[in-house]
Amino acid sequence: MSSETILEKEAHYLSGWLALFLWLLALAGVIWLFLGSIVQRGEPPVAAILGLVLLGFLSKGFVILQPNIAGVLIFFGRYSGSIRESGFFWFNPFCKRQNISLRVVNLNTPTLKVNDMAGNPIEVAAVIAWRVNDTAKASFEVEDYASFLAIQGESAIRAVISTRVYDGDHDGRNSLRGDLIAVARMLTETIQLHVELAGLEIIEAKITHLAYAPEIASAMLRRQQAAAVIAARQLIVEGAVGMVKMALDKLQADGVVVLSDADRIHLTSNLLTVLVSESETQPVLSLSR
């Protein structure tokens, strides 16, 4: 038989100051009865002794909760409710109280080795900002919600990383390295789905370390350098061709010189050599007439 999901509810409690006032009145009455019986009979009455024992037991219900600290109450093995407010309170002393922090916590995941969508092994680590949202689920649905988050966070990271490649197209779209904002959003949503059972809220999740695995890092670095060189040379060639065309058109339009096809070819070759060459070119002057 499947267990029923426990949802958070507000516990029954009183203001601690009101309960303390009533408790002190009862204590004063018990002491008055105790002293009066001593004076009249020379021995304390049973009612006064029982009253002191009862007041001592009722004092167990007083609790002081700091901001963002919740008290989960358990009444004879059953969930009774949660106190999420901060202050001084009194609850049923038969209940067992368990404090749970509602403050934001950072989790730094270990560096994981994961294959991206292209099958390349990469190293990735993330930081996850989270807090408890449902105290009942965090207390009763999982054994240890912090450990649960750590394991489920690693699983979510592997699931997200495997859906993208490390490097995308020329502008970095649809890649891990070039679209970190979208990856962080996807990572946050995925982790939230994984830890919903534990009543946790994922505030944000960001990649803190992203690199190729050491065994392929050098090869991928050479690949990136080659791609950068090819892109740069392509830009240089495109610019050089445009400059040569502009120069030939300008000479022809201004009538500076009349160029034959052979002259145009020769001039184009010289200009491209000068513009595209990576080293400084040396002019060669012809002395023939």
From TrEMBL:
- Does the record's keyword annotation contain Zinc? no
Which domain of life does the UniProt lineage start with?
Answer: Bacteria
Where is this protein localized, as stated in its record? Answer: Membrane
What is the membrane topology here? Single-pass membrane protein
Keyword terms, alphabetized: Membrane, Transmembrane, Transmembrane helix
The record lists the membrane-crossing segments as: 12-35, 47-76
Question: One Pfam match, by short name?
Answer: Band_7
Q: Which InterPro entries match?
A: Band_7 (IPR001107), Band_7/SPFH_dom_sf (IPR036013)
Q: Point out the signal peptide segment.
A: none
- Report the PANTHER family cross-referenced here: BAND 7 DOMAIN-CONTAINING PROTEIN, MEMBRANE PROTEIN-RELATED
Q: Please list the residue ranges annotated as the Band domain.
A: 60-224
What is the protein's species of origin? Answer: Candidatus Accumulibacter aalborgensis
Question: Which protein are we looking at?
Answer: Band 7 protein
Provide GO CC annotations from the record: membrane
